[in-house]
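We modelled the chain as a single entity of 118 amino acids. Its sequence is:
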Amino acid sequence: EVHMRTMLFLYKITLLQVLCTFSVKSADPLGEFCNKNFNTSTGSKISANIDHLLDELVLKTSFTGFTANSYGKKQEKVYGLAQCRGDVSDKECLICVKDAATEIIQRCPNQVDARIWF
């Protein structure tokens, strides 16, 4: 039962981590992780929730340099985190998080557990 709860928890997670070190417009990510064991299908409720969450992360991180958020209900709830270093300007942070949100969808399509860093 503990293993099943862990699996369900992991299935409901999407994680976007961004570490910005300089102006990153059009820069390639330094790294990424796509957990191929946890997939969803295009057009599913979880996929839509991930898209919504990424939009929220972009919006909210640009004001503070950090945000952790969730979106959805019950088994379709997804979680995300975006963070920029303290020495990165608000504008550079916004550019970086926007790029990361786009890149993570392209590099980890239909993944519910993914990370990317710049």
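As a brief sanity check on the tokenised model: The helical segments are 2-11, 45-64, 90-107. The beta strands are 31-34, 66-71, 78-83, 114-117.
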